[in-house]
Amino acid sequence: MTRLHLFDLDGTLMYGSAAPVEISRQLGLSAEIAALERSFSAREMEPHQFSVAVHALWAELTPAHVRAAFDGSPWIAGIREVWREIRERGEYCAVISLSPSFFVELLTEWGAHAAHGSVFPEVPFTRPVEVAGILTPEAKVTVADRLCERFGLGRVNCVAYGDSMTDAVLFDAVPVSVAVNARPYLVRRATHVYEGRDLREAYQLVGSQRPEVDAS
User: Superfamily for 4-15+75-207?
Assistant: First the structure.
């Protein structure tokens, strides 16, 4: 039986940073996004409130800004190589992130079978954010279930990779998880822990293990 590898983006595939931070840097709004990030980390803002706030902050955002942010982000090494190996093994890889969909979906260019983020309007913005499209930590599990259905798998066949509290619900829902440069809160919930800057090393912790057969 094959597996589905589920990757978080901010702080996991991106070392020490997040998509909103990199996008805001392109607009010269680093101080403003830092304040919002602090509020979100302190649980003073819900995901939909954070998304509405960054949407307003990015009034001047263009596709060129998005591409520059993506290309200039501090990506962990080995992402494309890991995803290539996953594909060659007949397995699947996907990204599930609370960050904006227009950024997250660019990772399909690197070999992800699927990439899901909070649904934002097309850039440049001419419409408001629809709150219903903003992902929550619980919604990560919902997206994972939809991907399992798409690929003919079950949660028992999933491996989750993440770094923060927003990944905890997904970690609790699947049998194998890798905490990548993670907060202590998540480390305690993971079956594997990795500190470093190369996804190939994190993947090696689970790459040779075979999943259980889903009897559902």
Answer: HAD superfamily/HAD-like (3.40.50.1000)
